Amino acid sequence: MPNHPTLDASVQWRIDHGTIDLREPGYRGTAEAILDAGLATEVRRLISAGKEADVYLCAYNGAPLAVKAYRLYRTSHRGGRPIKADTMSWLAAQEFEMMRQAWKGGASVPTPARRVENLLSMRYLGEPDEPAPRLHDVSLEAPAEFMEAVLTGVDKLAAAGIVHSDLSAFNILVHEGVPFFIDFSDAIRVDRTGGVPWIRLTQARDALVHGFHALGKHFHRYGLAIEADSRADRIVQSLDRFGVLSNRTR
User: Fold this and answer.
1) 3-state SS assignment for residue 201
2) In this predicted model, what pLDDT tens digit does every residue of 83-124 receive, in sequence order?
């Protein structure tokens, strides 16, 4: 798998031929795009709206699934590409590949299904009339056990080669008592040495420290604490198979 997922041929064709629509499609347009892409046979309703993307409850031949649709223009993401559709399709591809890598490694993420341009489908978590809540929105009956499950989940992500770049109670869903990690558009792939290894590992450590601090603030309400720096160091050391960081400090 490449470090940078390639742009969809359909997006590139529209860029080359000047047929990119510079208007945000809205609910109806997005629903039509989901159906036209074959990601679902029914779009039921919007279940979540974020800074960069919306999530829809859909169904494929009656089976519920979630479809995340990256907005093409009405976003805060500036990107580095001249065409916004290009950038948002790349973000969707990035998230899909990160989720697939995490899922293949046994980490607790919604099972990814398919991706087409700026749309990606995945397992729907929740009840038919209510999606799984975010950790931020629930009151835990056994917070210590759940915190340990979250920390174990972070370890499993790292073992699968993924470091979440925005760990927080907002990016963890609680489904059947299990934490599921979501929102991997800016995740860091750490199971290979493409690029400059020490930069990637340093970025991974910074992301882990920031994430553990955020999780620590959430669990502090239950009287619990997380040793952010020591946990981040332990994970990064396990990832630094060739001693890149230790050799650099000598």
Assistant:
1) helix
2) 556 678 888 999 999 999 999 999 999 999 999 989 999 999
- Phi (first) and psi of residue 181, to 5 degrees: -85, 140
According to DSSP, the β-strands at 63-70 and 119-123 are antiparallel
Three-class HEC string of 7-25 = CCHHHHHHHHCCCCCCCCC
| b/e burial code for range 95-108 (CB count within 10 A of at least 16 → b) | bbbbbbbbbebebb
Tell me which amino acid residue 233 is.
Answer: D
What CA–CA distance (Å, rounded) separates 114 from 47? 19
Structure tokens at 99: 């989720």
pTM: 0.86
Ordered structural domains, the chain, with CATH: 9-128 (3.30.200.20), 132-248 (1.10.510.10)
Q: Which amino acid is at 18?
A: G
The H or E element that residue 246 is part of is helix 244-248
DSSP alpha helix (H) spans, 105-140: none
Q: Are 92 and 66 spatial neighbours (Cβ–Cβ below 8 Å)?
A: no
Please name the helix (run of DSSP H) or strand (run of DSSP E) that holds residue 120, with its range, or none. Answer: strand 119-123
Burial 113-150 (b: 16+ CB within 10 A, else e): bbbbbbbbbbbbbbeeeebbebbeeeebeeeeebbeeb
Tokens of 131: 């999606």
CB-based contacts of 62, cutoff 8 Å, min separation 6: none
- Collapsing DSSP to helix, strand or coil, 189 comes out as strand
Residue 191's pLDDT is what?
A: 82
**Could you tell me what percentage of the chain is helix, strand and coil, using 3-state DSSP and rounding each to the nearest 5?**
40, 20, 35
